Batch of 2 targets.
Target 1
Amino acid sequence: MESKLKSTVKEVLGTVIMLALALLVGAVLVVISGNSPMEAYSTMLRGAFGSAQKICELFVELIPILLMAFGISVAFRAQLWNIGATGQFTIGAIAAAAVALYIPVPSGIAIPLSMIAAVVAAAFWAALAGWLKNRFNANEVITTLMLNYIANCFLLYLVNGPMQDPETDLSQSALVPVGMMLTRLFGDYRLHSGIFIMLIVTVIMFFFWKTNFGYRINLIGQGEKVATYAGVNVKRTTVMTMMLSGALIGLAGWIQIFGIQYRILSGIAGSYGDIATIVALLGALNPYGIIAAGVFFAALRCGGNSMQRMTDVPFSVVDVIEGLIIIFVIAKTIVNNKTLGLRDKFRRKQGGKAHVE
Amino acid sequence: MLSNIFSLSFLVSLLAGTIRLATPILIPALGQIYTQRAGILNLSVEGTMLMGAISGFTVACATGSLWLGLLTGIVVGMLFSLIMAWLSITVRANQVIAGIGLNILGAGFAAYLYRVIFGIRSLPAQIDSFQQINIPVLSDLPIIGQIFIQHNILVYLAFLLVPLTWFVIEKTTFGLKIKAVGEHPKAADSKGISVYRIRYSAVLIGGAYAGMGGAFMTIAYMNSFTESVIGGRGYISVAVVIFARFLPSRAMWGALLFGLASALQLRLQALGAAIPSQLLLMLPYLATIAALIFASKKAEFPSAYTLPYSRLER
């Protein structure tokens, strides 16, 4: 028990060192761009945590990031590389907006209906890649990615065509009915009641990996042979895993429509797909890690936005830091394993010797 | 409308566009044949192409020499893929995760470089890109000349790389070693082939081709850099390799297929077709999925595909 705690502490410490290293490289890039890194990072810090409003904004960012990262972690645990979060988010958002705009029912019915539409649409969009993998052995990395581009083209078509707001020339739909918008919790701050959905999902995720389904997903991640020996229907579980993954991501799309955007517009998914992927990986695909990484990245994004507004530092520095973090963390894990592995071998050798003597 | 589609001039410009648009997919795909044959799935082609695109463009801008720009794109592509090689071969990381990370890094770094070097401007920086070469008589030939002999020099270079890649992989010892480390690294190692060195070379060659493909986009296809200049071509080229079952000649046909899908979209849009342009934009991506559906079942992946090698393991 103690050694487990020790290794966790070591693991966390290692990750923190890698984060610091990435921020250090970021500082060098800031200097090269002709700015002061102290100023840039202090602006970022203030931009992320500086006031009640900033902290509310942090949670606004955290909601889609966490939900999507949980969705991605479900697929990644099964070694299904769902890179299609952007597309699944977009499809969920489109379905949600379509229900809100075109189905004339009272908002009491329209709200759950639009949520179901978003979740189901995104689940099927993701399951498509799972089915293509089962049926045709098509690599899911490529198919989910291509489905991102296709979803984006579809969105552009809708907001410039059939769903375009007749009042404007902008690439966006009309506003959803006011009655469907999620309530804001603190006056004018953008933080909305969608945060409760995020909290509920977070709690569920802690229990999920102990359930039968969660267990089966982990088994698939051990390889097809292992899963089959354990009596898991690999093909069916593959599709169901992708559905669950897409469903959580679609839920994030739904929340974003009714909590923040109130309409669909071009590029609605932004870079949430990429960030959530990093958060899931950095969080080692477990709920604790994902929460910690999610807060860190939400702060990085919020702070980065402030930094770009207040200083001359380009936002792309934040993107570079994100990329570096993944690479450093990958390198770190393996370095750990290598040294641990060698030490084990050394111990075994010594143990063996002692026996002989 | 329909009569326009079946007219000769439409067909000619469609086919010429097909060849031109196939090039930036063909070049990285040929490079990935080396990489994937050696057993490594490098998904960071997209990021590598962006790095090649920005560095090639910058140097071409600064020196006025397009060839120097191209060379820079190739070198930067190799340097960037060195990270992939290190992560996948030495660190033995999961290749999918490493690829995702490098793509984010490449996209961010390319955007950063553009901003730092060129600043914020209302009009994008522009250069005089590679011009089409005109060969007297040949280029003026009706139809044939218009389709095949009115491209810039890099397009021809790209298609010359097809037989070259085939020759290296099928007819040289180096090619044999690449296939050996992709199929059975343990056996290759026991025969005295350095698995690490061959795999590093294969990833670096792939990076060189990807960097060249990226530079092609900014200094030969367009004459400026945008953050979306690659637009998924890196991923498509990885798909083309699987579609082509790791064979250069098939990769050429695969690239031409995607070129056709892209050209069709552009030509129909230019004609003012009744189909909305955004839906036509889906064509190359749909074609990629369709290609994977038809090819993946039959594709014989190298036995050690995506598997890192270690002497310590049995």
Target 2
Amino acid sequence: MLELKKVNKTFFPGTINEKKALIDVNLHVETGDFITIIGGNGAGKSTLLNSIAGVFPVDTGSITIDGVELTKLPEHKRARYIGRVFQDPMMGTAAGMMIEENLAIASRRGKTPGLSWALKDADRSRFRELLKELDLGLEDRLTVRVGLLSGGQRQALTLLMAAMNQPKLLLLDEHTAALDPKTAEKVLNLTQKVISKYQLTSLMITHNMRDALRFGNRLIMMNAGRIVVDVGAEEKKKLTIPDLLQLFEKAAGEELDNDRMMLG
Amino acid sequence: MIDLIIPTTSQGLLWSMLALGVYITFRVLDFADMTVEGSFPLGAAVAVSCLVKDYNPLLAILAAALAGGLAGIVTGFLHTKLRIPSLLAGILSMIALYSVNLRIMGKANVSLLGKETAFTIVESMGLDYANGVFVVGIAATLIVCLFIYWFFGTEIGAAIRATGFNPQMIRAQGVDTNVMLLFGLFMSNALTAIAGALIAQNNGFFDVGMGVGTIVIGLASVIIGEVLFGTRSFKNSLVSVVLGSIVYRFVIATVLQMGMPPNDLKLFTSVLVAIALALPMVKSKFQARKAG
């Protein structure tokens, strides 16, 4: 489904700050895969997701989804295929607009906006149904501005917005990192629910090893711009956190260094 | 003073086109657009040159709107394609428009004496001139507000508003933020040009310097309106901006009546806007002190 071939990305090339963020990255993702991604500081996890989403162009290599060449497409044109949730809860929604307006925009993700009315009555009842499934009481607050919601509520809403019209690929960039543990847990469970409901192919970056093991059917670890460990479903089920650390050290030749990494 | 109420309100209504234009860039798009300083006299120049040639006033206003909109597109092009910072892009357009306006008019000051304008048409229907201006002002404001309300309720309109709030988010939803910015700048400067066209017709002349300070007048109207009449919803904001423009005219009329020299008007307006913009900061400091 998703295919990355020899993708390279270097930031600030030729300067003292030069940073090789991705080095010859190859990745093949099957339809229905739910892949968790872990790695140290500056390993290239976010760069990987942002390259796929088209936030910036990659230097060399190709990125395709179901055979469609994305490599040269600008970010907004890739949105047809890709739903995203960001680390910052502020980033995925328009704070000054109502919940229903945000959902209306998301329900048309990837389509060129036209001159028909953005909000139709039929949409409202559909939004209400969808929000009910989040179980956060948002279904009665359609006309509330999103800026008034809590971080967890905003992330749940962003998740719904990313998933509601079944993107080919869902990208989750540490989307629970800014939430308190209880809310993070809730959003993670919701993520699992949404992914199974819409049968989404997903990539999820996490700094929590337990979550990386608990969720998904495949796990990859990155280090210094490369994918150093890639574990499939069967093997992943048997893995423990010490196994994971050991795997990483063996592959990377150093200890896993992430000041936010949580082992438990 | 009482006989000033209708004319002052009319002035406020005519100028509210500008205030609505500034609202679209400054508030909706979060883009401080200086182009208005040039598109306001541009609208006046285009309208006056049409009227001098005896074209229909409505046509003159539409031509002005189109010209103003194109000026906005130029600024948008400078910003989105050539990556010139927004403030500078607007300043470049504004300065360039000074020459363009002189080109259109051929000289710095052109009179509309004896020519048919939107106001003389209404006058010929049997209203006196002052009431005619009022009627035109009401009609223009109503049409423009309804249009803006409709437009920003459409899919494109929603995408433009989202672009102002969070460009990252709307890009991730598949919308080209550059195109949305161009739409917004077109609309904002078209409205500003309509204001210029109406004001020139009301004044009876075009003057190349008539654009000086329009951005500040627009900001003052927007801020006064928001503070006094609220921003609960988009609809509420539109009404607030129009009322803000009217209140601003009353403030000006009052201080002039009280004997302030007209030459000090721009200083007065700038100070007014500076105070209004500083208010949130002062308020939070005050609250912090109270809490601490």
